[in-house]
Amino acid sequence: MNDMSGMGGMGGMFDDELDDDGFDDEFDLGSLEEELRRATAILDPVPPELCRLAVEAYALHDLDARIAELTFDSLTDAIPVRGAEDVPRMLTFHSGGLTVDVEVSEEGLLGQLMPPQSASVEVLHGPRAGAPLTADDMGRFACATPPTGPFALRLRTGGEVVVTEWMRA
Hints:
The protein has helices spanning 29-43, 48-59, 74-77; strands at 66-73, 89-95, 98-105, 108-114, 119-125, 128-129, 133-135, 140-143, 150-157, 160-164, 167-168. By secondary structure, the chain is of the alpha+beta class.
């Protein structure tokens, strides 16, 4: 009685109950998903502050805005320099022909738009924007207050609105 199926002599006992994918036709995946959601809500609930931030961040999105994608982050992409302390974080965002370079440090936030152009800039913190900033004709802007927690930049250049991805300071 050497059974090749590994079922210890029960070979094809359950084969007629399974469909082609190996699942029981009577098994309801919807009820399993609902039960797992309830268990997760009890055992590992989403913190209320995180839910609030998610709702507020979604409420801030601009339907007409282009998203500037993060293409460089010195925390993950740069090679560390031995002996360097309190190095500012460098971020680069791209959207179409616009590049936004940002330096975040304890002294604040510095940025430049490429190609150089004037623009209004807002540092977004949750549901409200910070003090409005202005990029000069060289595309440079600065904020004396460093961002805390999640933040993004909203840039208005001419008739165009560009919003960077959200980052954690």
